[in-house]
Design a protein that fits this description.
Number of strands: 0
Number of helices: 5
Strand content: under 5%
Structural class: mainly alpha
Helix content: over 70%
Low-confidence stretches: none
CATH topology: Serine Threonine Protein Phosphatase 5, Tetratricopeptide repeat
Distance between the termini: 52 Å
Mean pLDDT: 89
Radius of gyration: 15 Å
CATH superfamily: Tetratricopeptide repeat domain
Largest sheet: none
Number of domains: 1
Length: 106
Amino acid sequence: MGETDKEVSMVADNVILLVEKKASKLIKERKFDEAEKILDQNLEKKIESYGTYHLMFQLYSLKGDYSNMIKILNRAIRYSTHKRRFFKELKRVVILDKILKDAKIV
């Protein structure tokens, strides 16, 4: 990778981090639709950022949106190389939680 490629990569990483930081702030303010919209910008790039997937999961969790929680975890499993095992386990926990809530056990 040449020097220019490294610089472009660093800029892209910084943009991803800025989007995640802004989305985190919006989630804390409970502005879920705005946060989702800007995080989608990262997802459109099929990135591997743990932060983006974690924030999207957090957003859907706060909304109680199990369907989208599973969808974002599936996407994280598909595109994340470093945290794939973590996301698979989290998906198992979410599914079990949903089953127990639907059965009114929890």
